[in-house]
Amino acid sequence: MKKLSITQPSRLAALTLSIGLSAAAFSTQAQEVKGSAAAAESKVWLCTGCHAIPDYRADYPLVYRVPKIGGQNAAYIYAALEAYKSGERKHPTMRSIAGSMSPKDMADISEYYAAQTATSPINPLK
Length: 126
Known about the structure:
Layout: H1 7-31, H2 37-40, H3 45-51, E1 57-58, E2 64-65, H4 74-86, H5 92-99, H6 103-115
Antiparallel strand pairs: 1-2
Helix pairs in contact: 4-5, 4-6
């Protein structure tokens, strides 16, 4: 039977620590992305093609009721965009759109839609 040397467990510990620190750094970086509703005004044009139409239904790949997202929580919108981008959510059109967005784009668009409320002026972009 082969004995483990003292350096093998320490290498494993160093690798584990390195992976943990990398994950923590990535998580901190993702949390630092701050959205701006004003910055999103030039970015939401593609969203409005579906999300600004009352009772709109997309018919690819299945008939799907497109939600109005104005007033939705920004963290929820951001998480949904990340899920489309990663493929966790399966709608092909949304996956393509989210796949083209940077984390800053997603944060800006999330803040833009979160700022829309029932009392917002009529806005064709919500």
